[in-house]
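2.7 Reproducibility. Because tokenized structures are sensitive to small changes in the input, we list the exact sequence used for Glycosyltransferase, including any N-terminal residues retained from the expression construct. No trimming or masking was applied before prediction.
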Amino acid sequence: MIASTGLPTVVLPVHDAIDCLRGCLASIDAHSPEARVVVVDDASADPAVRPLLVDWCAASPGRELVPLDHNLGFVGAANLGAERAGGDDIVLLNSDTLVTPGWLQALARCLASDPAIGSATPWSNNGEIVSIPVFCQANPVPADPARVAAAIAAAGEPVYPKLPTAVGFCMAISRRAIDRLGLFDADTFGRGYGEENDFSLRVTAAGMRNVLCDDAYVAHVGGQSFGAVGLAPGEDSMRRLLGKHPGYLDLVTAWIAADPLAGRRAEVVAALG
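Resulting structure tokens (single pass, no recycling of outputs):
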């Protein structure tokens, strides 16, 4: 197991989507070359994926490849990567994302700021309730994600507002929460979708908080990572989630209607100019 860096360990589950994967890896190279990264190749069907990951992980002693010959699904791959993180906080990162300057340090500061924080999610163009500039919309990937990150950093001190749920494209999880709650519920959500919402509601039930890391930004293409194995949100995943948490839809609907991030989002949009 590779040594801790003092920053959260990045857990990167991978299944195909090689073009997005190349962009994600390049963004980590550019903005977080020091990061400890556990890459779980969940039996990618594309024969070009494994050699790409072998070479990328070999380029830094802080990178570990966990190659799987049988597909576990997103939740199983994420849990396996989290186990490899040892005692670190983790950031579960989708492979169709683009990280930006300072993202990992901002998430680390957020998790460290309050022992009651169980999860933290950054702003994104395509992050549902943390989408910017347009709320709850899949905004296009910006031409210059680093410029958006700089505007967010310039929009005032972070306040880490509370969220009803983390969003799984980039989800930082404190080791405190993992130690207290365990990992994702693979039995219920094995192939993926709903696991981050379930975890977030367990965070809340334990008296901890899910927050927006409002001085970090990660761009998200969306619908690419694990898309080849048929993972998409739908009635089945929602039924599983509501089976465990019947009040979930009412909670999120009320939060969206209130839109408590409106003021903070307006500050960022103004900083973008």
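Residues 9-272 form a domain with the Spore Coat Polysaccharide Biosynthesis Protein SpsA; Chain A fold (CATH 3.90.550.10).
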